[in-house]
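Many introductory courses stop at the sequence. We go one step further.
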Amino acid sequence: MSHPHRAHVAARLSGTVRIVGAGLLGSSIGHALRAKDIDVVLADASPSQLRLAIDYGAGRRARDDDRPGLIVVAVPPDVVADVIEAELAVYPDAVVTDVASVKLDPFDELRRRGVDLTRYIGSHPLAGRERGGAISARADLFIGRPWVVCRDGETRPADLALVEALALDVGAMPLEMTPEEHDRSVAITSHVPQVVASLLAARLADADEGSLRLAGQGVRDTTRIAASAPELWVQILGANAEPIVEVLDALASDLRDVSDALREPNAPGSRRTVADAIRQGNEGVERLPGKHGQNRRFEQLVVMVDDTPGQLGRLFGELGELNVNVEDLRLEHSPGAQFGLAEISVAPAALRGAIDGLEERGWQIAGNTND
């Protein structure tokens, strides 16, 4: 859902913001800040990446007289501590933050080096795409997403306000955590899911073509993030190894229990073991925040959509006429068929009206949560 009013909200930041690292996150921050007319300076170790980000409008080149008040470090995890240390030294009046997906490792490394971290505040926007680089950057990447800010006892209130203003200016929702809380949280919500998706997708590498033709939304949902870059994830997983290993060991134990139960599915207790695994999954997914951060579940209806131009637009238009708000959408194309399946999430109270209204308008409903 678009936010046409967002561009009219005045920027909280002022002056110059320096972004080191012009990849997906750095360039996306640049685009979001430039949309609010904030002066953005870009720097990157790769001249071609830097030129590309500037050409796309994410910011400008650095000048010798630049005096940034805020510096955002958006570089790979294995160099983030080096870059933070260098930026603190070169710009003694600036507040430095970083957007690395692991917070404790660079903080501890900088402490070991004896770096004064008074002006450093680690942060992490929980946003991204499977594709990387400046060419994939988007100004709306952070809208509605959490942005963790890791303060400590030395953090000055004005510096904290600056980093929180950055998050708010790009449309994110600031959330304070310690580095330890952050890393344990992303282990279970981001890092382990990446490993699980990759391992599951690896089973498909040797599958025969006939099996793959049966691939539906289930396998696509559970393997979507498996397309991520191995080089980056080796760094991320290594930097947050301890909490990740803890979750993986527990998961491995659960997998072994289910595997053992299915070796003798008729043995006493086997069916309960399998049922408990599925039920506990139900309980876990119910806790995931939904739209606007609410722990609220929606109903789904599946509509058959002809694979011709304008059909999806017509479907959305008629749902609008029915005063049905689309909370979420996913599309599945049927192999070899000239139609797709649109799974639409709506508020429970709107489900029956959506089904009846669409059927009256000639749409074929392929399924819904009440079936």
